[in-house]
Structures
1.
Amino acid sequence: MEQLKKKLEEIIDFDIKEEEITWDEDSIKILEESYKLKLPLDYVFYLQHYGNDYIREDYRFIPTTELPQKINQSQFEIDSIYGLNNDENNLEEKIKFYKDILPDDLLPIADLPGGDLVCMGKKNDNQNKIYIWFHEMDGENVYLVVESFGEFVKYFKSIKVEKGKKENVKVKLSGKLNDFLSNASKKME
């Protein structure tokens, strides 16, 4: 678990971490019993010692498996990894929210910008494997990306994030909208 801990310390954005709560084994067992889960040790370690974490903006997850061309991505920005703290990244709330949307054999564990999810398999051959669920994709929309939660964390890589340059942007507006905005700005002066 030392390698997992070291990598988590590297990728978690502790500047925006709100709470430092640890969870005991009983809390995890209650979660497992409530949702008929058997969570892997690496994910249990994460839930006990971390949870509800945002990922640093200069890190991307790079899958170990090749994804179909229609995905058209080789690295993924991950917003947050869910945990047990009572906030917007609460695992139980996410399970309830996605219950009727996700396939039954997937557990949501993290999210990507735009609504796609990182999920953990819950049953049979896919148990504990990590998938990305693409919410807007027609047809098959769930793809295996790594074999375990530990590998998921391991395959975050630091990337160079280019800061946006401030430049003038030209926007063409309809006549009515342009008039409305011009009048509104004059009233504010």
2.
Amino acid sequence: MSKPIRKILITGSNGFIGKNLAIRLNEMPSYSTLNFVRGDDVAQLPSLIAEADAVIHLAGENRPQDDSAFTKVNANLTALLCETIEHEINSTGRKVPLVFTSSTQADRDNPYGRSKLHAERSVRSLAERTGNPCAVFRLPGVFGKWCKPNYNSVVATFCHNIARGLPIEINDTSTILRLVYIDDVVDGLIEALDTPSGLIEGKISPEYTVTLGELASQLSAFNNCRTSLVSERVGTGLVRALYATYVSYLPNERFSYEIPQHGDARGVFVEMLKTHDSGQFSYFTAHPGITRGGHYHHTKTEKFLVIKGQARFRFRHLITDERIEFETSGTHPRIIDTIPGWTHDITNVGSEELIVMLWANENFDREKPDTVSSKV
């Protein structure tokens, strides 16, 4: 028997966090979303609460034209939301879990910080009086796709400007930022929907620290990799999250880019991607009857994969003169390794163009290519 779908009311669902959260929840078969956005009448809250199984309260002001908006939206709207949930509990006996995103600035004596602290107190009071499940997340800087640049996120602003060749402004490169990534925030908020009862202090993990100078340097490196072809280490941690964020700010015309192609009578050779410490990827072509290679390496190793056509690989041991041959084609994926100390070549033995993908364990160095010509 399938579980009933939980309806989650998201206040501020058209904001940065709200957009990411709503899409994630709607991807999950056990959730659907209700929305309350800027400009909606607060008179709708009782009917929305009556329909919702839980609330994630994201709506807030952080850069209004008038400081009074801090109190109106951050403090008063949260208080009203808590009062509405308490009324639902008193009239139906049904508790409505509440997840609230506050800010690390809640402990600062400024209009924004005071308004967030006031909102936290409303949530805590609701939990204490009724036992309603509540979670309060004091978020540091959140970054990721769809965050508005030139607003309140330096990551978004730097990504937007660097991706467009615009200058960025840094007053102090040593300024330390505390950051959490949007996907981790969404994970944490959804997990908090299952708070059993009372109040929990939510925490998003991992939390990253980086200086402004380091942030600018890393984002600039992403921008430069299209000309150097050297990818940053984008597979894990902060660099992975920053890279996904950076490319989400690329203007449409930069979704694609050209790379150099080297051609001669045999075919073409194209380097696609290089890494700092795991080699490079490329591909080459060969016309029917053409042989490429005819060299050996002392340390460098390679992996070949025929994408299209039919190829014959030949190997000869430099010392023993032992010889080996393999044939492979694009219809039967098979990796061919080159081995240090063995001369190797590849011949197009088919009737169509041969296309071969190539990985080498090190980037090509023209000063020390480790490639010595020799007949097979």
3.
Amino acid sequence: MTLLILGLALWTAGHVFKRVLPGVRETMGNAGKGVAAVLILAGVLAMIFGYKAAEFVPVWQPPAFMVHINNLLMLGAVFLFGLGSSKSPLRAKMRHPMLTGMVVWAVAHLLVNGDLASLVLFGGLAIWALAEMRIINASEPVYHRFEGGSLGGTVRLLVITVVVFAVIGGIHTWLGYRPFPG
């Protein structure tokens, strides 16, 4: 569990570095981006290996129907992740679509995983995303809405969402996690 928690800490440090220490980050230039990238990558690796190595400690037994709710939420999470860099006019409707997607992703996974390591991982990432939104809003109080976009951008986003969702489902199945009942 220690490695998992370390991974969350590194992930958080890499992401908030720019917001919490903007002067230091700016002084470092491209090296600052490199430091953040290394922290984030190390965090991801530590979370993966820490989660896989964590002892299974059951906290609750999720009902079987939660798989369906998880899949619906995951479709929404993938859409929100993509919305953040899409050419859809829907992008102007939400300040933090990718971070909101992270919260939805985390909640979806908490609905189907009732063990302690999942609570730490997915709960920790949900808390990080919510905190990151607050940090961004405090450091950049003026929000410049996305302008433009087209119906074609929205259609492209929807197609990409379905394809990425299917790929994620395939990867989960390949890894031995069955995301689709049947």
4.
Amino acid sequence: MRRSERGKKGARKERKSRPLDETSLRDLALSYVARFSTTGAKLEQYLARKIRERGVAEDEDGRARDLDVTGTVTRFIELGYIDDDAYARGRSRDLTARGYGARRVEQALWAAGVEEQVRSDNAPAEAECRRAAALLAKKRRFGPFAIAQDEDMPSDQRHKQREKQVAAMLRAGHLYEHVRFILDASAEDEIEEWLEEAEDDGDF
């Protein structure tokens, strides 16, 4: 490697490790919320980690400055840069669209630091949960979505296969009653009627 290249990389590394003050802390926060959909708790965790990694700049007397992480996060919330409710709504919609159930949605929102009431307000409704379960079964070719049923499969092997499918859907956060209905369905039409039933009840 040429000396000039080593010098450039060293300079970049030095800039990254520069201790933080209020201005650089705010700049980090702005960059983070511009790149990621996030919550107040996640932003606070990110800033705290950056302070641990880079340290805090000293003032004119050689003392470490006090950085107001909580105040920065609160200000961003007031400005509308962070909206936990919008985050929870989008995250819930994204996860169910990928075939995950209500329990996985709850876990993801809890891990992101979303408050209990906001998590409850944005939990997927019955119709959404059913659609997500059916979507996962279709993607994984479970139950009536299987390409073909092997009638010659030994009963113990068939039982193990079903247990694996149940476990996979439960890990994805689905209710057991939904899993059982889908795996016991004799045809795709039966699942379609089941989905329409929840939508007709207005439970979105």
